[in-house]
């Protein structure tokens, strides 16, 4: 039976990248029933200024699985990030970013194989913010001062909520993911030494969840030390589970260890839905130019194949992409030693080369 999957092309380079990915996914021999849905700046005028119409969310809820191209968030004004709205609307609380070095990729490291699991609904990203000079900021400042907190009058305020329930579910997700994919260790990252009531709660809860999952090794690291450890000994780590902000920063650090955004896939999980998308954004300067690297989008498709139980196709697709990276011939400019290398190929050529490898 064909797998029904919602396909959101996105904007910027998104449509080219998702088209290349759709072609390679079909070339694995797996049957798909694509439900194409549009979101982003290009469609908002059609839907009364809403870049994420409700029917797109409903479509993902119904299929349970989506693959999505990047979507631009204009800086200042415009609409709030569609990506954040999508995560909120579907309660996609777990963001997973596997970071693996493929042979031949330009990186200072070899043998990196990490999975970053980022909590995606709480922490300083919860959107609870009060602008400097606003009545709310003044009121809150007054309240905090009357409770012995030191705060300047001219401070903007962002609130950092971390809950027991939110921490339990992301930790349990990390252990389940580790178990499902045969990983050996989960490391919880925090700054419990400084923020006792948020990160301290996180660490305490993490240890409780770990005690219920004792078949998998568990340890923890303070976030700053974690960054240094990753740069010095990335091979010592396996699955990292982090609150929202540290997760965002450390996943870019990890993408840097493995050769950059062009090869960094990602996925967002809720209880009943999963949305697969690369770590990178819409790279608008390459839009419509057939230049952007589709491998991160394709590798997100590979994660999707595993998620829907098509493990053999997932392994074959990853092997085909790894083969191209190793040979270094049919790759886009970003994977070449020189950005202006005349041998660099285009987005659709990479898809052709992956398909040829799959069929070889
Ligand atoms: P970006 O990831 O689009 O680009 C960062 C750099 O990496 C640029 O130099 C870009 O050209 C390059 N790059 C990115 N993807 C590439 C690819 N596939 N091949 C070759 N080079 C690639 O980040 P940005 O410029 O900060 O963001 C652009 C827009 O994307 C913003 O509006 C941002 O909000 C949005 N964004 C969306 C998502 C998402 O949809 N999930 C994620 C991040 C950023």
Annotate the secondary structure layout:
Blueprint lengths: L2 E6 L5 H14 L4 E5 L17 H10 L1 E4 L13 H8 L4 E7 L12 E7 L9 E2 L4 H12 L10 E2 L5 H17 L4 E6 L8 H13 L5 E6 H10 L6 E4 L1 H14 L9 E3 L4 E3 L18 H13 L3 H17 L19 H13 L1
Parallel strand pairs: 1-2, 1-3, 3-12, 5-10, 8-9, 8-10
Antiparallel strand pairs: 4-5, 4-11, 6-7, 11-12
Helix pairs in contact: 1-9, 1-11, 5-6, 7-8, 9-10, 10-11
Nicotinamide-adenine-dinucleotide binds next to loops.
Key terms:
alpha/beta; 12 strands; two-stranded antiparallel ribbon; ten-stranded mixed beta sheet; 360 residues; binds nicotinamide-adenine-dinucleotide
Structure at a glance:
Helices cover 39% and strands 15% of the residues. The protein is an alpha/beta fold and 360 residues long. Strand 11 (267-269) and strand 12 form a beta hairpin.
Please describe the biggest sheet, giving its number of strands, its sense, and whether it closes into a barrel: 10 strands, mixed
**Shape category:** globular
Low-confidence stretches: none
SS-derived structural category? alpha/beta
Order of helices and strands: EHEHEHEEEHEHEHEHEHEEHHH
CA radius of gyration is 21 Å
Number of strands: 12
Report the mean per-residue pLDDT as an integer. Answer: 94
